[in-house]
Amino acid sequence: MSHASGRLRKGVVAATAVGMLVVPAVGGSAVALPPVAGTAVSATETPSASPTPSPSPSGNDVVALTPFVQRRLDSAVKRVMQQAHVPGVTVGIWTPDKGQYVQSFGVADKRTAEPMYPDLYMRIGSETKTFTVTALLELVDSGKVSLDDTIGQYVSGVPNGDRITLRELAGMRSGLFNYSEDNDFYKALTSDPQRSFTPHQLLDYAFRHPVEFPPGAKFSYSNTNLILLGLVVEQASGQPIADYIQQNVLRPAGLRHTLFPNGNEFPTPHAQGYTEQTATGKVENAADWNPSWAWAAGAMISDLEDLRVWARSVATGELPGGGHLISPATQKQRLTTPATPIPGVGYGLGIFNVQGWIGHNGSLPGYESLTVYLPSAQATLVVLLNTDVNYKGTEPSTIFGQAITRIISPNHIFNLPAVPAAR
Question: What is the CA radius of gyration of the chain?
């Protein structure tokens, strides 16, 4: 993915992006980073805050996380950090019977040199989409909405609103312009990162542009889709989306360190986040930026342990303590992942499948994340880092994902190739 000068553009992966909320930079400047340091957590330790499903064999799709493999992972992560100038990163890998690996490297704060460590809160960007779509699918199960309803039944003034279905919104096949790519929106956000945007203000930026293709014609990633689905969740549930997700998604899943913020609140301890996607193009700390501009498409906060639990829950539709997050029939629809322009990558209802890894990634100024689950091995991978600055046109989270999966799942390598964005 490359930057687009002068525009707040979504991260573009294979021309349309699969999963990042990104404000591209207007230029950029290099900063000196501290030496890479590691803060190890034993691969036999697992935080016990959330219930863990009963182990079952992993098969041959992941390797055993032996001390030798762990050393290879250490080296690979450090190498990516140095190449991509990443201040800090945490990596978690869990399998039912082949061990686990939890490591933090580098710093959470470049000013104080506070080390990165696994318990920090992080902004998770477009991983929010998995929570918003889960909320929508729960409403489908309760009969309050149908995936084949049109968005015009819930929100007025949507171009093609009488034709675009909720299914097409969740599957990124609506044809609606991505508000994140609007010039005026970019200027509004970067000139005042503390300002609060309403969902309808975001939609106004999108709807001033013509639709890009007929509903269902092709895949094209657009944050506009999730803003609309957030409004559907609120209308159908009668609750603010933050409250509905807290009560009906986070609480049943046992996610005690995940939240949908109302403004720029950020629980402590958290990592500082570094971005060059600023009005000046200089690297700044975006930790206190207001994520309301991403709302139901990317505003949420979480931590490593909660994302470990969520990876399996969202990929299987099952709750950690037993029972279903959403019904098996609805989960089957969610995991129907039609092809995208990217070879080996499909996108379902707010979730992607990359070479067998199911989940989502996220990026917004200062932070990137990757939370995926490999059903064939019942393995989970979570990567959290405190920068969104690209390296040679590629998201750093993708570089980490590829380097790690080359080692642990060589037949299932996580790869989201980037192409230059239009300038």
Answer: 20
